[in-house]
Amino acid sequence: MEESIVPAISIRDVHKHFGPHEVLQGIDMNVMPQEVVCLIGPSGSGKSTLLRCVNFLEVYDGGEILVDGALMGYEIQYDGTRRRASEERIRESRRDLGMVFQHFNLWPHMTVMENVTEALVSVAGKTKSEAQKIGIKCLERVGMAEKNASYPAQLSGGQQQRVAIARALAMEPRIMLFDEPTSALDPELVGDVLQVMRKLAAEGMTMLIVTHEMGFAAEVADRVVFMEGGRVVEEGPPDKLFHNPESPRFAAFLKSWTQRNGQTV
Amino acid sequence: METLASFFAGWQSFITENGPDFAAALWVTIRISLFSVVCGIGLGFLAELGRRIFPWLRTPVACYVEFFRGTPLLIQLYLLYYGGPRLGIVLDAEPAGMLGMSLYAAAYFCEIFRAGFDSIPEGQREAAHCLGIRPWRRLWRIELPQMAQIVLPPSVNQIITLIKDSAVLSIITVAELTKTATRIMNISFEIVMPLCLLALLYWFISEAVAMASNRLEARLTRHMAR
Fold first, then answer.
1. For a pLDDT cut of 90, what percent of chain A falls above it?
2. B2-224 carries CATH number 1.10.3720.10
3. What ipTM was estimated for this complex?
4. In angstroms, what separates the C-alpha of B123 from chain A's closest C-alpha?
5. Which of A97, A115, A118 to mutate to test the interface with B (most CBs of B within 10 A)?
């Protein structure tokens, strides 16, 4: 039955090299519409690289990534070979994707409102007042509306990340990608950001999340994917995965996490 | 008392006699500096932008920068003014000076802009990519405003250095400040007064540039932690 639904993201046998080092060694994975998938694994396992391949911030060199059924980053030529798509095409393919970065990547010389409305004006073609209406709505969704006139440097990390989420939401993406959204935050600021993400998930947003927050993954994810050494080692619903890991590697990863955090997932 | 009075009298007659010449020369120096700063910034920016967009421009731009930074301005001006005619480039002293100074300045500004571009974290460009913002818009709205505050201090240094370097134009007979002061020294056998006035005038221009840049810097950094 699942075959009839087009996956929001379809990753097929994706390979990626950094020089001689193969960081992605054939990844297969689907993210269905409205599904929340968490990518977990040790540092260097390739999970962030994979996420960045999905919106073509990193060029993958083997396999294919389909976003809403359309090939990301490449054009198939008449002779069947493929070449890198034009920047215009890549921009077009990214329209459905919102991206949230580990280090927020807000533009420091713009106010919160300007950060959120920049693409609305310059890409979506809204007038300034339309953009500000949308902007304030998006900022309300992340609880940052009253800070709309502040500059990023005046906000805490958690607040900056919520603004970054609002900036991505403003373009009405159908899929949100999160690249370790809480890893750069002080522990007491993590909660607010996770709360916003929880709400998004509840609203039915399709989300692919690279995270180290196991508790969050267990609670919110529909499916958890454990990666190591550029491969998917194990995947499944969080209940099954966290309580009944099949592979010894994931069991060991879970055990060390439990020891470090003094609690089970 | 007597000496002080004669001191002032000496200056007074010196200024009345040579003031107009110095004023004219000051204008020449300002004119040449302004022209070469504007052209240098423009050309330097284009060169830097060009090599970022077109990889094949990297080597030519690098050669250009290395040549103009690595050789003395004096030699460049000699080559242009005295060697130029052999290649069919015949210019009067002042246009030759302006051209030479502009080419020289562009090499330095190109490097200043390189540092400016490099200072913007890649993540900010990635954020723009992800939102579908086009390259020119990104340059205008995201990169340039942030670069401005970063390239401003080194640019001001460079501008002041250029203004003072324009003294070299005296050797290709441009009637700018230094040339004028030397000429007056040769005619009047007065050494101290022309040199003091010369130094004072350069200092005056540099100070004006520095003051203007301080104002601009305050404006550009208004978003920084308040």
1. 74
2. yes
3. 0.90
4. 5
5. A118
